[in-house]
Amino acid sequence: MPNQLLIRPAILKDVPEILTILNHEIKNSTVIYDYTERTLNQQTQWFYTKQEAKMPILVAEKESNILGFGSFGIYRPWEAYKFSIEHSIYVSSASRGLGIGKLLMEELIILAKLQGYHTMIAGVDADNKESYKFHEKFGFKEVGRFNEVGYKFDRWLDLIFMQLHL
């Protein structure tokens, strides 16, 4: 079915399209608190690091185009955090509002449960009301708010942490 949206594990050839989506957000939004666009080499290393750690990278594909991606990783790098993960979902600006983020999130939650994780964490920019509501729909609750911890586009940014017990 060529017009159907497919959620599947990412493969190496998806990395350039993942990079395009990510770099758009770095340049144009506060969904990621970074200034410098990633290089293909950096994103390829990220891909391999996720594979080595057995952490998923999912893509949403339609007609051979990557419209979004999602992943998770251990929340913090110390052993006691091994059951807590933080996720990221990015959807291309042209593909928002089509339910792609929802499909990616549903699959990430399933994978997290299957892999035995206890809690999933989201870091959400306080001005990103859509992301906040999106996470609430999945049962995430606000558990912390850090004021003025980021600085981008000549303004201070507040970060909200939301949590879902799996």
From TrEMBL:
Claim: RNA-binding is one of the keywords in the record: no
Domain of life: Bacteria
Its EC number(s): 2.3.1.183
GO function term, MF aspect, one: phosphinothricin N-acetyltransferase activity
Domain N-acetyltransferase: 5-166
Alphabetized UniProt keyword annotations: Acyltransferase, Transferase
PROSITE patterns (UniProt xref): GNAT
Top EC group: transferase
Listed PANTHER family: N-ACETYLTRANSFERASE (PTHR43072), UPF0039 PROTEIN C11D3.02C (PTHR43072:SF23)
The name this protein goes by in its record: Phosphinothricin acetyltransferase
Record organism: Saonia flava
